[in-house]
Amino acid sequence: MDIKEFCRKLDRLLGSRDLHGEGLDTAIKAISQGLAISTGEIAILLADDDAGALHFLWPRGLKSSGTVPTSSKESLAARTYRDVKGTVNNRFSAIRHASIFEALPLKEHGGKALPIQKIISVPIREKENCLGVLQICRKAADRTEAGPDFTPAELLGAGLVARTLARHL
Questions:
Q1: What are phi and psi of 68, to 5 degrees?
Q2: What's the number of domains the chain is made of?
Q3: For every one of its 169 residues, what pLDDT tens digit does the chain have, with 9 covering 90 and above?
Q4: 32 close to 38: Cβ distance less than 8 angstroms
Q5: How far is CA 156 from CA 8, 53, 59, 102, 124, in A?
Q6: Which domain holds residue 86?
Q7: Which of 42, 52, 89, 147 yields a CA-CA distance of 20 to 30 A from 117?
């Protein structure tokens, strides 16, 4: 199935569901299956413009962990939000970055917390308004275990998924 068809199916699946409620688990499960990644390799951060910060909507375990200042120089999510531009980094573990998302253990990896090796980060936007950030990553002990590099086509696809999610925020 191509990414446009996947997004149409995701949009229909979510229907009138709201990502702040019952639609979140549905969306995460669909994205995980559709993109062949673990649910622990997906992050959704929403903007709180009054606080000048991003907060985790997913994973739920990070929802109460605090916020990421949108001015942060070490946060890819903050940079994605500020620049309203998606990015791929297939050597993410080699650069200095905020690592709160990496602290969450993955059930699929025996409950181990693993570093992010590769990541796609895209803005969740509605027209010109940036609502937050969608991040899709590959976590593993090292880069070779993380699987194939993300491609420019996957970056474009993640942007389409983010636009689909925006309709349900």
A1: -110, 115
A2: 1
A3: 699 999 999 999 998 888 888 789 999 999 999 888 989 899 999 999 999 999 999 988 778 877 899 999 889 999 999 999 999 999 998 776 665 655 555 455 556 778 899 999 999 999 889 999 999 999 988 988 999 999 999 999 999 999 999 999 8
A4: yes
A5: 15, 25, 23, 24, 13
A6: 3-166
A7: 52
